[in-house]
Structures are given as structure tokens and as C-alpha cells.
Specification:
By secondary structure, the protein is α+β, with helices and mostly antiparallel strands. The protein is 20% helix and 41% strand. It contains three helices and twelve strands. It has an eight-stranded antiparallel barrel with strand order 5-6-7-8-9-10-11-12. A two-stranded antiparallel ribbon has the order 1-4. Strands 2-3 form a two-stranded antiparallel ribbon. Strand 10 and strand 11 form a beta hairpin. The longest helix has 25 residues.
Length: 166
């Protein structure tokens, strides 16, 4: 027969074994449950880190970029859809990253194409609703990129973060 309780600061004799144990007031099954619970919590923590994603290698940028992205600069929300065929559609705000880098200065919709060379992404505007875009293209550098988050830096050094729309 084994001891089912461990007692803090007091030695107790395990029935049949002759050995003394010290420990907290916990039944042995509770210790096992606590170990399993700790393992589950650790697994959940690790899986939440995986959701944020590890940085992608540059060789995977072209495959991972297509999709819907949302960003915010100075309180201005912008979204851009990068299609796998190299086209894009962006809803821009006057103070937003895309609107500012293209010099548009007003809200509207831009359409065009995107290309990727290394860590540089270039947007070339074919159509603009509202006011016409001052610059027909802009290039930004990918500072960091994981499956769900993209950080871009424009030529002036301004950074913005785009999150993948789920």
C-alpha cells in the first residue's frame, strides 16, 4: 500500500516501504493532475506563439504576401488586397501609409500591380478613384514579415504595420 498524502514539514512513513517523505499537503493523484495541467498550459502557450508566426525567409515572401492586409497610421485605417496574379486594390486614407507614400493626400481606392524584388515591394497605380495619385508607383522595404503581420518602411523611413485580415 502506498501513501496517498504528503505532509509539509513532517515526515511520514510510507506504508510498506519504510521510507520517509516530506512535501505539501497534496494527494498523489492531484500532483499527477497538476503535471498534466501544466503540460496543457505549456502546449497552449507554444501554440499561441506559433499563431503569431516565426519570421518568414525572404524566399517565401512572394507566396505569403497575397491576401487582405489592414494597417493603421495616425488613426487612419487602410486596407490592401494583394492578389496572387500581381494585382492590388487598396482603400487609402489621406494620412495613411499608402496614401502618403503615393502622395495622394486624400481618401479613395487605388488599383494596380505589385512586384517583389528581394525585400522590396513596389506598387504601381493604374487607376485611382477620387483624386489622382501624384506618384504612379512607390517602393517600400519589408522590415519584418510573418504569416499574419507585415512591417513596411517607406523611402522616408516611416514604418507601418499591416495585419492579415482573417
Amino acid at each position: 500500500m502506498s501513501a496517498t498524502w504528503l505532509r509539509r514539514y513532517d515526515a511520514i512513513q510510507c506504508a510498506g516501504s519504510g521510507s520517509a517523505l516530506r512535501g505539501p499537503w497534496l494527494p498523489l493523484p492531484a500532483v499527477r493532475i497538476a503535471r498534466v495541467a501544466l503540460a496543457v498550459v505549456l502546449a497552449l502557450c507554444l501554440s499561441s506563439c506559433e499563431r503569431a508566426g516565426a519570421p518568414l525567409p525572404q524566399s517565401q515572401y512572394a507566396q505569403a504576401l497575397p491576401g487582405e492586409w489592414q494597417g493603421s497610421v495616425g488613426g487612419a485605417q487602410e486596407s490592401i488586397h494583394l492578389a496572387a496574379d500581381g494585382s492590388f486594390r487598396a482603400q487609402v486614407q489621406s494620412g495613411g501609409f499608402i496614401g502618403t507614400t503615393l502622395g495622394q493626400g486624400s481618401a479613395g481606392t487605388l488599383r494596380g500591380s505589385w512586384t517583389l524584388q528581394g525585400a522590396s515591394i513596389t506598387l504601381a497605380v493604374d487607376q485611382a478613384s477620387g483624386e489622382r495619385a501624384v506618384d504612379s508607383s512607390t517602393t517600400s522595404t519589408i522590415v519584418s514579415f510573418n504569416q499574419n503581420q507585415l512591417v513596411l518602411e517607406d523611402a522616408a523611413g516611416a514604418l507601418t504595420t499591416f495585419d492579415r485580415a482573417l
